[in-house]
Structures
1.
Amino acid sequence: MNAWLQLAGVFSMLSLLAVGGGSAVLPEMQSLLHQHFNFSQTEFVHAYSVGQLAPGPNMLAVLIMGEMIDGIIGALIVALAFFIPSSILCFYAGRLWTRIGDTPWRHSLQQALEPISIGLMCSGVYTIAKESLVNWQSCALALLVGLLLLKTRINPVVLILGAGLVGFLSGYIAS
Amino acid sequence: MAAKSNVATQKIALHQIFWQFLIVGAISFGGGIVAYLKELLVTRYRWVDTDEFVVMLSISQTMPGLNSVNIAILMGDRLRGALGAWAAAVGLLLPGGIIVMAIGLIYGINSNHPMANDVLGGVAAAAAALLATVTWNLGKRTFMKRKSLALLVLTFVLMSIVKWPLYLVLSTVLPLALFIYRPTQSSQAGKPS
């Protein structure tokens, strides 16, 4: 029961702090899950990474974290807590938006949020990268995948699965 | 109680909203959902026009939460009110949610397998690369301007190096950024300051 309340509390707070999208809260999510549930950095990065294989919003990976912490109920609590608060806020903001009209401060807010959300996304990249780029092989693999993503139109899921296969083969050869 | 005034010109049924968002939620592998939504619901079905979509996108980016889910909420509300918003958001999240749970189950069963760490190591390296390229593509303009780059770096340093909690980072950097981008005389011409 207490774990359920903690899960709901952590993820509804993250929901309302997710300025500029879900990856902005990755560092905070990682440290809160570590604090409250003793979730290791490796578990966190694994849950995030395998979550990228599913269609839909990339932050659906939070359901895997909920599932790892407290099974199906944990996943359900996380889903409700992470998606409902921000959605309700956006719903009412949408209705107010046109009523407020085109004030200069609205434009200022949009301009002000852009560098902050990109900065937070960079922190998200850092959180995932410092745990996943641990030796020259993983750095080389990430570099190759990054180049393919920028230069070709191959679907990211194919590249992620390919990278998993490369990881498997290198482990297989090494053993 | 209050009758909804500005409904879409052609009335779109709730199940149609649910179904179209479900399709996007099921086929959008590898991210880029906003582009899928625009292609399907603006270009092909013309449920809203491009101008409306641009407004929805800027609200989605300004408010917290995932952009794609926020757009679903706004578009559902625009088409069929609160129920439409629910139908769109649930439709968008349902297929990926189910698949992600299955993946989680497989992970839970196999995470102690000796090969699992090798596979997951590769998957995680690629996921890091994916997030980095998404960030780069979104941030290109922000990286190029001096003021916004300074705010970006400050946010990153406070979050990842100084390791402040997120609410503290936001309540420090946001007022500063609002001050830097405050409305100028020319943008509010005619109004006394």
2.
Amino acid sequence: MEVKNLATTIFRIPEVEGRWMVMSGLAIVCIVLIMAIFAPLIAPYDPTKSSGEILEAPSMKHLMGTDNLGRDIFSRIIYGSRVVLMVVFSASLVSMSIGVPIGLISGYFGGKLDRAISMLMDSMYAFPSLILAIAIAAVLGPSVVNAVVAISVVYVPTYFRMIRGQTLSLKSRLFVEAAKAIGAKDTRIMGRYILPNIVTTVVVVFSLSVADAILTEAGLSFLGFIVTAPTPDWGFELSAGRPYLPAGYWWMITFPGLMVMLLSLGFALIGEGLSEIYAPGRER
Amino acid sequence: MLLDVKNLKTYFYSKRGVLRAVDNVSIGVNRREFISIVGESGCGKSTLAYSIIRLIDTPGKIVNGKILFDGKNLVELSEEEMRKLRGREIGMVFQDPMTSLDPLEKIGEQIVETIIEHQDVDKKEAWERAAILLEKVGLSGDRVNYYPHQLSGGQRQRVMIALAVSLNPKLLIADEPTTALDVIVQEKIMDLLEGMKRENRAVILITHDFALAADRSDKIAVMYAGWLIEFGEADKLANEPLHPYSEGLISSVPDVWEDRDIKPMPGFPPDLIDPPKGCRFRPRCPKAMDKCINEPPTFSVNGRIVKCWLYGENK
Amino acid sequence: MIEVKNLKKYFPVQKSAIEVLLSKKIEYIRAVDGISFKVEKGEVLSLVGESGCGKTTTGRILVGLEDPTDGKIIFKGKDITKLDKEEFRKVRRHLQMIFQDPYASLNPKMKIGEHIEDPLIIHNIADNKEARELALQMLERVGLVPADQFYNRLPYQLSGGQRQRVAIARAMILKPEFVVADEPVSMIDVSLRAAILDLLMSFKAEYSLSMLFITHDLSVARVVGDRIAVMYLGKIVEIGETRKVIHRPKHPYTAALLSAVPSFLKREIKIEIIGDVANPRDPPPGCKYHPRCPFAKEICSKEEPKLEGKKHLAACHFPLDLNL
């Protein structure tokens, strides 16, 4: 995942502990969350109304400038965060609810079922996330709900693989065998012995795949698969601003682009930071 | 004396406080002597061994004392000088041998390399000696052609021992070398270690197995909570221990040849950061007296050294 | 009480790609190669041998963690190897195991109390409230007091010895009839072993348990076992009353083991053993032990000896007649 590498290259200074990464990531995410929740209170202007001055450079009046229709970009960014967060969170929650149980069951029982599902998941995983999302969204048609569906499908294999891998390695651990020897049923073993021990993995995978999903969402939005005008969404802003860049109007693209990158980075930091803290070998 | 440790103190500094792992220990080993250091985990025996070869790293530190080896005080030597000593003059076999075997080289090659470096023989002779060395640790000689990953953990441990012995050090320190191994192999390795005595060398064996110590050593040193609480001739100590801890330890261990009245030792070894005041064994001691709230001095009783108020008065 | 007849467990050998291309046969490691024994009610049978002899595998088969390749296990009148998953699950209530590694046999995310309650809940013996009561009582019984404090702790907060007590509590709470103890003290500090063994033996006496005590330490076997069985390369080479086997060993391997055990007493005898343990992939013909036996004669490389004797049996063409 490209985002993971980005966070790694910027922040992989040996002395920086996982805790700092999680803290900084959380700070970024919280800022955006506050932006989204309190949008009506924070945004200085109505994002869909023009203020008259088109393509104004960033100034005290319009912190991020205005777009080609005179709308305040800063306000559009703030409201755009709602779409981004909502799509990405819902999609990730759906992916998780499907991928985790399937990974657990497939890994635990093994056999033909496992082989079949793994093959399916591996082929899905082989697709670059954006391409697959586009393919699904194209079939379903552009809308916020369809985008959520498309993105959730894309990330199911990610959860599946991680959870299945963890399940496989936990399956052969002594305490799981001990549970079998007592006479525990498979459901109990999966629920009380394996699942609690993979929770930290699930949280890490969640953070990292949200980081990736933000980029996928931006891509889908850029191509117009999510929102239609005048609803603000960061990816959509990017595509709207693109034609004006050669003329020197950089603020239409730069700010949405920065926001996408920043939010993704935030989640990546949380995920990487957590995986540092819960690194294997550090038994808690 | 080949090795003379005087008043050694090795402490570890942590957020919780100072951990007195080795607290004022004095012990001597002569050539042709096999001594065992016996104690439970956490008593400081491994730390003592690591202190001798100066492998103590922060947060640990040798705070006080002298370690006289063949005339030199090891505490005063530089790291460079210590590096020359390690392996060649003082050999050490560690508890966890995952370390020094190169996975890409056959084990025979690794042994041959060390043999050639230290003994004046040609390659052919070195390979033969390597095969013999492997036999001595209970592996068949043709395993010289094996790679480390083809051997089990116990077999790798034996190769490490063979390597350490092949360097022919004046003093060999073995830290629980046979814990993971079976009795038959253990016997072979003990034979090998004992054999070093005949070559005018000395061996220090660190173990929690009193019977093993009693079986093979000339002298036994018993450690508890960082102290050396008893030291003397092995046979006599094992049959007539003086310190109540040694007595308790011996009585809690079964023997294959006789039905013994096994008495479990009550309590737990103390926290080395905040040990009991006075005698550190006092809370668990069946013979504790009022005196014992003061640290007992080390007394000498018929050639036995005991750190216990039962054996003397304060001067 | 429990009878094992001709138990076998063969593991197919993992081959490298080249080996698969070159040879057609599937090779097997005969981890357990036809062993038979009985353990009566209230009796402890020690199973001793070096690592790789098959003793741990035998224990695992008995509690259902491995399926045998052949043989029968008669327990409570039934051959438990023939039971289906659900029937066997019910039998497990009476057939428990204590594992060697106290650091690995407990669930890091489950409280101590929950570990002990688990068997009660799994077998529907008690509901949540009763289970908690019983768990607290059991914690006291195994010496983990104050019980309510230990109830809420997690495994990482306990020492090895304490964890092993939890493992024992968990195995004993169902009042099983047969317990397999797989090297229960070998990873515990020497000075604490006696206490753990005492605890185990007290349960054995209280519940009239039958126990299979697996160990490589003959000194421990002497303390716990009524009878002792010596295994080598998947076979039982000697079996009999503990003191008889120790003081009058018949099989040269038993004698070699005995002479290698460190002891406070001086031994009068030293029996040699030649070389390293044979490769289990390629066992020798005839008596499996003959290449290492200083007393081997020609017949030993041709014919495999059977276990012979009345109460003290040995599988040897030329059993020893020693008095140690």
